[in-house]
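Re-run with default settings, no changes from the original entry. Doing this only to confirm the output is reproducible before filing.
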Amino acid sequence: QVQLVESGGGLVQAGGSLRLSCAASGRTWNSRMGWFRQAPGKERELVAAIRWSGGSPYYADSVKGRFTMSSDNAKNTVYLQMNSLEPEDTAVYYCAADVYNSWDYWGQGTQVTVSS
């Protein structure tokens, strides 16, 4: 069983920064971790993804150059550093784990609100 617990959301002004954290427990080794977001009335979208084993992270075009995903294997935690935030980044952000070749496990979500 895998559990994911997100933290770090909040309210920030446009141009500001936030860092999200996702603490993972259970069998996540050799898996891929991702950050998704869902804005009101929109579909959930993959924002960034990374493997615990390393390699280049994936980023959606909308966040390239502004968001950075990283992992701390010793802490079983992944992070999403979000800079130059825009009102369009307002959404609920979810951490997810791809353990069995699909996004099998999800966190509870954390709200990010960017004011203009």
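The longest strand covers residues 18-25. Residues 7 and 21 are 5 Å apart (CA to CA).
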